[in-house]
Design a protein that fits this description.
Shape: globular
Structural class: alpha/beta
Bound molecules: flavin-adenine dinucleotide
Helix content: 25-40%
Largest sheet: 9 strands, mixed
Number of helices: 14
Radius of gyration: 29 Å
């Protein structure tokens, strides 16, 4: 926190905190709307890409290549300064943010307008063993690691005799029956069923899939009837859903349930909710509401109906934006991509309007419905009373998300991958060894010989005697 990057000129500086859905779209739209020299835009994110999170379950199942489900910020944001760093503090009273770069020292960045779009992180409870043994599903790294773990466990299990260790390796537990949980659960079940064909030592009944949900139903975004159809579809494919059940422990990978059951598992995926990014929310002086989100107005300026925090904006999962359509939970927009993208586009328009002395507009979006993939060729879609199930819904899922992926460059990569999988089959390559990329090199690398052991020293002698002994070689050298 030693140096300060000052605002050098009078061009307004817009600082965007987070280059995910909302941050990327805000910057993208600002590039289109801003006239030359009207403002400078900077996006700060520790990651060089925006993650298309709805694809994470398909990445975990290997239906989408990991790199294709993210969007490189520097490729698509041509007029924006991309900063590889975290924002670790916001002092809006002084209009200064603390930037902690991925390399180098933290510094202070002045700004005129701040846009907070730092998203959300997995929300866990202090259940023993969860922090140490479970994995979330919010990042591309987690999705890749989940696939690697499942595939490596098939390799290990295929070499073991029947018994508890083999069962543990072939057991997957997902906690949380919301959209993300159900999607990853169904996708992994579908992947495991494909894998069995390549492992003659493993049968379908050797694999165990459990989803734990604290409420009496899954997927609150769809109707009860549709959610019951999903339960039946999962049961048909050998996946068990435990409703009205809580996880009470996960020590050493033994999942303990409120029913008294214990399920040993080597792959525990936690998808039971999210919370607004605590680093950014707690590390700043912007107003925060009861659920830990940045209090945001319907015009996407930070503040409340009564009070506007000038020069501060927020959108996406980190913000509590009133849902004027009346459909939100507790009166606020739910944390999803549908809102993040639309809020971001309006935020950019509103910000430009305010810079030009015009009035901002209020955000209004009526939920379009929900669509989920449930493994290859199966899905579910709900919009109002209309529900589609099975193959048609799966096509709708792929169609919607294929088109919603930002930029044609990225759409093509995803669509091309899907097309190839369709006629070439699922890609079963497991590259988990990238976690230890030097293992072959290290094994065979030539090393310097260890130094010869030092000569055994003569027992310590009195000082005068020692000096006499040391003088002998000198004398010998002189007489040669
Ligand atoms: C598995 C899964 C499936 C989903 N499926 C759907 C779906 O089908 N439909 C739907 O509408 N929604 C879906 N969602 C939700 C949707 O992806 C999120 O609501 C959306 O990503 C929120 O966008 P955001 O910009 O607020 O946050 P994010 O997209 O999470 O972006 C936040 C960004 O902030 C960065 N950041 C974090 N900390 C800092 C910091 N200190 N400083 C700077 N930058 C920081 C992060 O690196 C990240 O790039 C899904 C989510 C998941 C996890």
């Amino acid at each position: 926190m030693s140096n300060t990057a000052p605002v050098k000129n009078t061009v307004p500086k817009i600082l965007i905190v987070g280059g995910g859905y909302a941050g990327f779209y805000t910057a993208w739209k600002l590039e289109k709307l801003l006239r030359k020299g009207e403002a400078e835009v900077m996006v700060v994110d520790p990651l060089p890409y925006m993650t298309y999170q709805p694809f994470l379950p398909e990445v975990a199942a290997g239906s989408i290549e990991a790199r294709h489900s993210v969007v490189a910020l520097r490729r698509h944001l041509k007029r924006t300064t991309v900063v590889a760093a975290k924002v670790t503090g916001i002092n809006h009273a002084q209009k200064v943010a603390t930037i902690t770069p991925v390399a180098g020292e933290a510094y202070q960045q002045e700004y005129d307008q701040i846009v907070v779009t730092a998203g959300a992180v997995s929300r866990t409870f202090p259940i023993p063993g969860i922090a140490d043994n479970a994995i979330g599903l919010k990042t591309i790294e987690e999705a890749v690691a989940i696939r690697d773990r499942l595939m490596s466990n098939f390799d290990k299990a295929s070499m073991l005799p029947a018994g508890p260790e083999r069962d543990r390796l072939l057991t997957v537990v997902v906690v949380g029956g919301g959209f993300a949980g159900i999607e990853v659960f169904a996708e992994l079940r579908s992947l495991a069923s494909s894998l069995i064909k390549s492992y003659p030592q493993i049968t379908f009944s050797d694999t165990h899939f459990h989803l734990i949900e604290a409420m009496g139903r899954i997927m609150p975004e769809v109707s009860l009837k549709t959610s019951e159809w999903v339960l039946k579809s999962l049961a048909k494919r050998g996946a068990s859903v435990h409703l009205d059940t809580q996880v009470t422990g996960a020590v050493d990978g033994n999942i303990e349930l409120s029913t008294g059951e214990v399920i040993p598992s080597d792959l525990i995926i936690w998808t039971a909710g999210v919370m607004a990014n605590p680093t950014v929310v707690r590390g700043g002086d912007l107003p925060v509401e009861e659920r830990g989100r940045i209090r945001t107005r319907a015009d996407l300026r930070v503040g409340s109906e009564e009070e506007i925090v000038e020069g501060a904006w927020a959108a996406g999962d980190v913000s509590a934006v009133p849902d004027l359509s009346g459909g939100g939970v507790g009166g606020y927009c739910v944390p999803n991509a549908q809102h993040a993208v639309r809020q971001a586009k309006l935020l950019a328009k509103n910000l430009v309007a305010v810079l030009r002395g015009e009035l901002p507009r209020e955000y209004f979006h009526k939920n379009m419905g929900a669509v989920a993939g449930l493994g290859l060729y199966n899905g579910v879609f709900q919009s109002g009373n209309l529900a589609l199930k099975g193959f048609v819904a799966w096509v709708a899922h792929r169609g919607y998300h294929g088109l919603a992926m930002p930029s044609w460059e990225r759409k093509f990569r995803v669509l091309w991958g899907w097309w190839n999988n369709l006629w070439l089959g699922r890609d079963l390559v497991n590259l988990s060894t990238v976690q230890n990329p030097r293992y072959v090199f290290e094994e065979f690398a030539a090393r310097p010989r260890p130094a010869a052991p030092a000569a055994v020293e003569a027992p310590a002698a009195p000082a005068a005697k020692k000096a006499k002994v040391e003088s002998v070689p000198e004398k010998a050298a002189a007489t040669r």
